[in-house]
Amino acid sequence: MAITLENVGIAVRDIDAAIAFFVDLGLAVIGRDTISGTWADTAVGLDGNHAKIAMLQTPDGNGRLELFEYLHPDAIETEPTRPHEIGMHRVAFSVDDVDAALEIAARHGCHPLRGVANYQDVYKLTYVRGPSGIIVMLAEDLRNA
Question: Could you tell me if 86 and 96 are in contact, meaning their C-beta atoms sit under 8 angstroms apart?
Fold first, then answer.
């Protein structure tokens, strides 16, 4: 059986703010829609499912994020996850320049959880608390510098 990763889906409280953040980091919006109906209820497992969605893609075409803003049922606000909690909690991106990416993130009010680390002179990386509390890892490959 062949398998490919299609996308990572993330529920957000404000889809426009989340789109602006990820577009500024370099992703491109490849589609937007508002979904509802029996097919959506069945696929997601929620009766009356109604959401704004957007599909974003990395410039190389290999990575996609699907963002959701639920209109119905009401979104459930939870505490943002922390790195050691069980479950999916972050999305990671390779960037050419971590410092430039952090300047972009800061314009959206998003800052590192602690700082920028150097992993064995191979990666310069940081975790940023992004829109809706999403943890976004930014990593710069120092071997390509």
Answer: no
Q: What's residue 68's pLDDT?
A: 94
**39-57 burial code (b ≥16 CB/10 A, e <16):** ebeeeeeeeebebbbbbbb
Query: Tokens at residue 63, please?
Result: 């990575």
Tens of pLDDT, residues 87-116: 777 899 999 999 999 999 999 999 999 999
What is the sign of the dihedral through the CA atoms of 97, 7, 132 and 91? negative
Q: Which H/E stretch holds residue 16?
A: helix 15-25
Distances (CA, A) of 95 to 5, 33, 51: 20, 28, 30
